[in-house]
Amino acid sequence: MAEKYSREEIYNKIVEILVCDFEQKEENIKPESNLFEDLDFDSIDAVDLAVRLQQFTTKKITPEEFKKIKTLNDVLDVIEKLL
User: Is the dihedral of CA 43, 49, 53, 56 positive or negative?
Assistant: First the structure.
């Protein structure tokens, strides 16, 4: 992906995905939100999110990186590395 995104732009895209694809309320989404505890994700939701993020970045998140993701900040960190 040739385009460079700021951390804020990446965060906004993730929020958009969570609201549109996972029916999350935007006011409940914060950088420190735990995907599993705060946003009620299950393992299938996590895989679906990884697929959506792959579509956004055009790059694949490695299984090792994927296992480390717990919070929205973790997602941001991984996406920043990919981009």
Answer: positive
